[in-house]
Amino acid sequence: MMLRRNSLRLLGGAVLLAAMGVALAQDNYPSKPIRLIVPASPGGAADFFARIVGPKLGEALGQSVVIENRSGASGTIAADITAKSAGDGYTVLIGQSTSMAVAPHMYNKLAYDTLRDLKPVTMVAEVPNILVVHQSVPAKNVQELIALAKAKPGALNYGSSGKGAPTHLAGELFEIATGTEITHIPYRGAGPSVNALLAGEIQLMFAPMVAVLPHVQSGRVRALALTSASRSSAVPDVPTLAESGLKDFDVSSWFGFFVPSSTPTAIVDRLQRETAKVLKDPGVLERLAKEGATPGGNTSAVFTKYVHAEYAKYGKLVKEKNIQAD
């Protein structure tokens, strides 16, 4: 009996010491560099936002933020690395709509569960896509484009930066919302698809604003509408698709921080607070505005609700349209 009591005391003491160690680690967080996993190669949108916010976040936390690019498989490689990392706040993923809300429905088997294994910290930025047409297309607004598409089913081609990308899914939702048939032509990235639009190989595109804004301003392509829920200050005269008659149409590219689900709430909250402060920095705001991006900074609870809604929305679309990874 005495041995059993001593064992229980030792076990209790070990548990207490472990709990104290965890609390101390949280209090001292961060005490070493933070790894920021980017699911894209250098120069991509996720990498762009990581390099704007990462250094400033490091300054706020008093530790360096080391960017690690791990591209491939629609961002699922980077997500898997993060999901399997220790939940200590030293591995952070800048997830994006494609990798977090779309890809899980396109791949039959993933080594992780997005909603179970990754915890949303905060939105970093949201970027609307913009519906643009080649100058050879006679449509001057969305309703005229719909009429043209209905008159010639399948004749209009739209390009995207790849299967499952927001630039692709916007086209799929457009078909459903309008009862039209337009032909999807996937390219390897936004750059090649925009070049195809400029060359007249495709007639329209739901393009990332940053990729086509200069061409809209020069008149080489015509902007008809934004795919986001609200207008952008970068193109204030361009209406949204919802304003153009497509109720509740909202397909934006978003980017946010995620950590392993076992990460303590105190660390998640610290990361959220400091990121929110960084996103209010005048220099950061100026750089985001130039790209037509809206800064985030919402709480983990609010961002989690948003991610779950996006996950469900795109899951339904992927199933309905039978979109599968190549």
Topology:
Elements: H1 2-27, E1 34-38, H2 45-61, E2 65-69, H3 76-83, E3 91-96, H4 97-106, H5 114-117, E4 118-134, H6 142-151, E5 157-160, H7 166-178, E6 183-186, H8 190-199, E7 204-208, H9 209-218, E8 221-226, E9 252-260, H10 265-278, H11 282-290, E10 294-295, H12 300-321
CATH class term of the largest domain = Alpha Beta
Strand content: 15-25%
Number of E-state strands: 10
Residue share in helix: 40-55%
Question: Tally the helices: what do you get?
Answer: 12
Shape: globular
Could you characterize the architecture of this molecule?
The structure is a single chain. Mean pLDDT is 90; it is low at 14-22. Helix 2 packs across helix 10 and helix 4 crosses helix 12. The protein is an alpha/beta fold. The chain is built from twelve helices and ten strands. The protein is globular and about 80 Å long.
How would you describe this structure in keywords?
single chain, alpha/beta, 2 domains, 326 residues, D-Maltodextrin-Binding Protein, domain 2, 10 strands
Summarize it.
The chain is an alpha/beta fold and 326 residues long. The longest helix is centred in the N-terminal third of the chain and has 26 residues, at 2-27. The chain is built from twelve helices and ten strands.
